[in-house]
Amino acid sequence: MSTTTADHPATGRGAAWKEAWRDPSLHMQRTLAMVLLLCQGGITVTGSLVRVTGSGLGCNTWPLCHEGSLVPVEGAAPWVHQTIEFGNRLLTFVVGVAAILVLVAVYRAGRRRDIKALAWISLGGVVLQAVLGGISVLLDLRWWSVAVHFLPSMVLVWVAAMLYMRLAEPDGAAPTRRYPARAQHWTVIAAVALCCVLVTGTMVTGSGPHSGDSGVGMDGRLNLDTKVLAYVHAVCMYLYLISTLITAVLLHRTGAPEDARRTSWILVGLILVQWAIGVTQFRLGVPRWTIPAHIAMSSTVVAFSAFLFSHAKRRLPTLV
Q1: How far is Cα 250 from Cα 31, in angstroms, rounded to an integer?
Q2: Composition of the chain by helix, strand, coil, percent to 5
Q3: Mind telling me which residue stretches traverse the membrane in this protein (predicted)?
Q4: Is 227 helix (H, G, I), strand (E, B) or coil?
């Protein structure tokens, strides 16, 4: 008696996957891009867990975990610290795989040049981040090396968010302005303010109590008043909030497309949540549990800022 592919579900699924990869659908491309975006944001949260648990030197060298060993070594450091730091390093490979899958998908689908460029930046950024993370370990987590490791992650979140949006656009269409130029100018001003927020935020962290490793203490920390830096950080945040509010109002008054207006108001709400977390940190003396939440919201805010920015000009389907 003969059998068909349908008689063997595993074989059928394998054939279906092979066929899907031969010419990835738009849905598949965007799903992979969303996975990449979540990975880029997620690894910043696991990185913050490394910091608040003092596990930054759980693996004290790079690319090995310890001298002569790729994996944790019993007794070389507390096992909890080794597990957290080594786990965070392994997640880099997960992000890398997601970036590779996106790159392969857009090439096999024959997408346009700017989409391929964003996919290459995402993959190259993962490699760069692995190197920067290793350098920060070799420098015993000096504050500026940790900042240099964190800030590119925010850039990669922005790139992944832009990639997710651009993938939805037809390649053959021309870019169309979807809201007034003055509103777009305010999105640029907001983006600049966001950069200032992120940079000053790393400075606040660099002068604060959480060095990333319990044995480092305040050695290599930023020798500036944390309270003053927190006020500077807050001013930058208010400028970012105000410029985003102005953008949202302009979009509302000029009758911009609903998706752009909705994104702007969601972003305003996210900034307010981030503000509340920041105020809580300041009032409570930066308790450990608030840091992962603050970092997670940073990635979320950056992603929605990129969404809003990308709404300004989009390639729309041609109506027949």
Answers
A1: 32
A2: 70, 5, 25
A3: 31-50, 90-110, 117-137, 143-165, 186-208, 228-251, 263-283, 289-309
A4: helix
- Which of 190, 165, 158 has its CA nearest to residue 271? 190
Output the six-digit token pair for 187: 């999105």
CA 311 – CA 166 distance, rounded (Å): 10
Beta carbons within 10 angstroms of residue 26's beta carbon: 13
Each domain of the chain, given as residue ranges in start order, spans 20-315
Token digits of residue 60: 């004290």
CA–CA separation, 293 vs 271, rounded Å? 13
The pLDDT, as a whole number, for residue 17 is 64
Task: Please tell me the distance from the alpha carbon of residue 117 to that of residue 124, in angstroms, as a whole number.
Answer: 10
Count other C-beta atoms under 10 Å from residue 103's C-beta.
18
CA distances to 2, 13, 61, 80, 92 from 68, in Å? 56, 42, 10, 20, 21
Give the tokens for residue 180. Answer: 């007034």
101: Cβ–Cβ under 8 A, 6 or more apart, which residues?
32, 35, 36
Tell me the DSSP string of 108-172.
HTT--HHHHHHHHHHHHHHHHHHHHHHHHHHTTT-HHHHHHHHHHHHHHHHHHHHHHHHHTS-TT
Supply the pTM of this predicted model. 0.87
Q: Is 8 helix (H, G, I), strand (E, B) or coil?
A: coil
309: left (phi over 0), alpha (psi -120 to 50) or beta: alpha
Give dist(CA 286, CA 48) in Å, integer: 13
Q: Which two tokens stand for residue 273?
A: 């949540």
* Among the ranges given (26-35, 112-121, 129-138, 201-210), the one the predictor scored with the smallest mean pLDDT: 201-210
